[in-house]
Input
Amino acid sequence: MITFSIRRCAAVIVRHVFELKNAFELFMVSYWCFFDLFSFGLLAASFKQPNALQYMTTNMALWYLVARGSIGFAVSFVRDLHTVNFVSMMTTPLALFEWFVALVTMGIVNGLLGFLMSALAAVLLFDVNVFSIGWVIIPAAISLLCSACVLGTLVLSLVMTFGRRAESFVWIAGYFLAPFSGVFCPVANLPIILQKIAVWLPTSYVFACLGAGRSGQVDTVTQLLFKSFALNGCYFALALALFYWRFTQRRITGLTRLEVEL
Output
């Protein structure tokens, strides 16, 4: 029987929120948001194509929901390993489900923080309002946060399997799928082999729906959003099953080894 205590879950969340109060942590998030928006914004502006700047800055800001969301999700676990705190938590009344919900919450918080920082950078650097795309940005953002949780869960499974040797995936997972998702250009402009990969990514449907939203194709937007949420649901269920299996196996071999083996 699954038990859930909001107080225990909130305690884990508060512990990780204190990390965000670190000025250096906030500077790191802000720096990369502004740097990416500035770099890709200049690139888009050099194309001198109508709406190119709006397209690039909006997509980059929304992609930070995935990138920073997955990083915030998984890095909370990695920090517990570095501080030799994970095993101690698992010996308390804190349930695995409560701990996992806390990590999901931190992923959402970090993703929203990255998105808002990027949206601010778009306004300050290029006078672009990413919210001008309209109502479609809300379900698109929710779907991208779901994708961040899927990626974060997969990274947890990798670290649970290979230990701290796999922690580099925490930083690259959120960026790895960007070229296949239509962030930098429409999926139709990608090479055929990359288009075949994009078909299986929920994020590709989100950015396709943003394009349809700009054109006012409401029916197409609805269909694309449905596909993205359906894929996210399937992948999240599979990722959860994989994580629980790897956690169970690791508990047999010894959770303590996660904190000491490299």
